[in-house]
Amino acid sequence: MIDNNDKVTRVWYIVLCESKARHWAINWMTNGHCYAVRKSPAGTMWSVVDPTTSIVEVSVYPVAVMANPQDYSEYATKVIRCVVDPQVNGKFRVRFGLLTCVTIMKALLSLSGWRIVSPDQLGDHLINSGIGIEMWSK
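User: That's the sequence. What structure does it adopt?
Assistant: C-alpha coordinates below.
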Protein backbone atom coordinates (compact mmCIF):
# COMPACT_ATOMS: atom_id res chain seq x y z
CA MET A 1 0.00 0.00 0.00
CA ILE A 2 2.83 2.40 0.75
CA ASP A 3 5.44 1.96 -1.92
CA ASN A 4 8.41 3.71 -3.40
CA ASN A 5 7.44 3.22 -7.04
CA ASP A 6 8.19 6.56 -8.70
CA LYS A 7 5.76 5.94 -11.54
CA VAL A 8 2.55 5.37 -9.55
CA THR A 9 0.15 8.25 -8.88
CA ARG A 10 -1.05 8.12 -5.28
CA VAL A 11 -4.09 9.66 -3.59
CA TRP A 12 -3.67 10.75 0.02
CA TYR A 13 -6.21 12.40 2.28
CA ILE A 14 -4.47 14.82 4.64
CA VAL A 15 -6.58 15.44 7.72
CA LEU A 16 -5.96 18.55 9.80
CA CYS A 17 -7.16 18.40 13.37
CA GLU A 18 -7.00 20.12 16.70
CA SER A 19 -4.19 18.81 18.83
CA LYS A 20 -5.13 16.60 21.77
CA ALA A 21 -2.07 17.83 23.63
CA ARG A 22 -2.07 21.26 25.21
CA HIS A 23 1.31 22.92 24.83
CA TRP A 24 2.42 26.54 24.51
CA ALA A 25 4.02 25.82 21.12
CA ILE A 26 0.75 24.68 19.52
CA ASN A 27 -1.95 26.49 21.49
CA TRP A 28 -1.86 29.45 19.05
CA MET A 29 -2.59 27.25 15.99
CA THR A 30 -6.07 26.48 14.68
CA ASN A 31 -4.90 23.00 13.72
CA GLY A 32 -2.09 21.57 15.80
CA HIS A 33 -1.86 18.10 14.25
CA CYS A 34 -2.27 16.31 10.94
CA TYR A 35 -2.35 12.73 9.72
CA ALA A 36 -2.67 10.98 6.36
CA VAL A 37 -5.15 8.40 5.13
CA ARG A 38 -4.98 6.32 1.96
CA LYS A 39 -7.47 3.83 0.55
CA SER A 40 -6.29 0.39 -0.58
CA PRO A 41 -6.28 -0.34 -4.34
CA ALA A 42 -9.36 -2.56 -3.89
CA GLY A 43 -11.11 0.20 -1.93
CA THR A 44 -11.84 -2.02 1.06
CA MET A 45 -9.29 -0.78 3.61
CA TRP A 46 -7.91 2.53 4.88
CA SER A 47 -4.27 2.97 5.89
CA VAL A 48 -3.76 5.70 8.47
CA VAL A 49 -0.33 7.27 9.03
CA ASP A 50 -0.53 9.18 12.31
CA PRO A 51 2.72 10.72 13.58
CA THR A 52 2.52 11.19 17.33
CA THR A 53 4.97 12.76 19.74
CA SER A 54 7.30 9.78 19.91
CA ILE A 55 6.29 7.36 17.11
CA VAL A 56 4.67 7.16 13.70
CA GLU A 57 1.61 4.97 14.13
CA VAL A 58 0.41 3.14 11.01
CA SER A 59 -2.99 1.44 11.26
CA VAL A 60 -5.28 -0.36 8.82
CA TYR A 61 -9.07 -0.18 9.11
CA PRO A 62 -11.85 -1.73 7.00
CA VAL A 63 -14.06 0.75 5.16
CA ALA A 64 -17.01 -0.71 7.09
CA VAL A 65 -15.48 0.56 10.36
CA MET A 66 -14.10 3.88 9.12
CA ALA A 67 -16.25 5.26 6.28
CA ASN A 68 -14.40 8.58 5.81
CA PRO A 69 -10.86 9.86 6.49
CA GLN A 70 -12.10 12.23 9.22
CA ASP A 71 -13.68 9.34 11.17
CA TYR A 72 -10.28 8.35 12.61
CA SER A 73 -10.14 11.36 14.94
CA GLU A 74 -12.90 13.21 16.75
CA TYR A 75 -10.67 16.31 16.56
CA ALA A 76 -10.64 16.44 12.73
CA THR A 77 -11.45 19.86 11.26
CA LYS A 78 -10.54 19.60 7.56
CA VAL A 79 -9.82 16.91 4.94
CA ILE A 80 -7.72 17.69 1.87
CA ARG A 81 -7.56 15.20 -1.01
CA CYS A 82 -4.13 15.19 -2.64
CA VAL A 83 -3.16 13.48 -5.88
CA VAL A 84 0.58 12.89 -5.89
CA ASP A 85 2.32 12.22 -9.17
CA PRO A 86 6.00 11.60 -8.37
CA GLN A 87 6.94 12.54 -11.92
CA VAL A 88 5.52 16.03 -11.32
CA ASN A 89 5.96 16.60 -7.59
CA GLY A 90 9.56 15.43 -7.47
CA LYS A 91 11.26 13.70 -4.59
CA PHE A 92 11.26 14.72 -0.97
CA ARG A 93 14.67 15.77 0.28
CA VAL A 94 15.43 15.08 3.90
CA ARG A 95 16.67 18.14 5.69
CA PHE A 96 17.90 18.59 9.19
CA GLY A 97 15.20 19.60 11.62
CA LEU A 98 12.44 18.33 13.83
CA LEU A 99 10.54 15.19 12.93
CA THR A 100 6.95 16.43 13.15
CA CYS A 101 3.59 15.42 11.74
CA VAL A 102 4.07 18.03 9.01
CA THR A 103 7.49 16.64 8.06
CA ILE A 104 5.99 13.17 7.68
CA MET A 105 3.10 14.52 5.55
CA LYS A 106 5.57 16.38 3.32
CA ALA A 107 7.53 13.15 2.84
CA LEU A 108 4.37 11.21 1.90
CA LEU A 109 3.40 13.92 -0.59
CA SER A 110 6.93 14.36 -2.02
CA LEU A 111 6.94 18.01 -0.94
CA SER A 112 9.80 20.10 0.21
CA GLY A 113 9.54 23.57 1.58
CA TRP A 114 11.23 24.84 4.67
CA ARG A 115 8.52 27.46 5.16
CA ILE A 116 5.85 24.81 5.73
CA VAL A 117 6.13 23.97 9.42
CA SER A 118 2.59 23.95 10.86
CA PRO A 119 -0.48 21.92 9.83
CA ASP A 120 -2.26 25.17 8.87
CA GLN A 121 0.61 26.16 6.57
CA LEU A 122 0.59 22.68 5.04
CA GLY A 123 -3.15 22.87 4.37
CA ASP A 124 -2.89 26.34 2.85
CA HIS A 125 0.02 25.26 0.64
CA LEU A 126 -1.79 22.15 -0.61
CA ILE A 127 -4.93 24.08 -1.53
CA ASN A 128 -3.20 27.19 -2.95
CA SER A 129 -0.73 25.18 -5.05
CA GLY A 130 -3.46 23.01 -6.56
CA ILE A 131 -2.03 19.76 -5.16
CA GLY A 132 -5.00 19.34 -2.84
CA ILE A 133 -8.73 19.93 -2.89
CA GLU A 134 -10.68 20.53 0.32
CA MET A 135 -13.14 17.64 0.66
CA TRP A 136 -14.62 18.24 4.12
CA SER A 137 -14.54 20.94 6.75
CA LYS A 138 -16.03 21.16 10.23
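The two ends are 28 Å apart (CA to CA).
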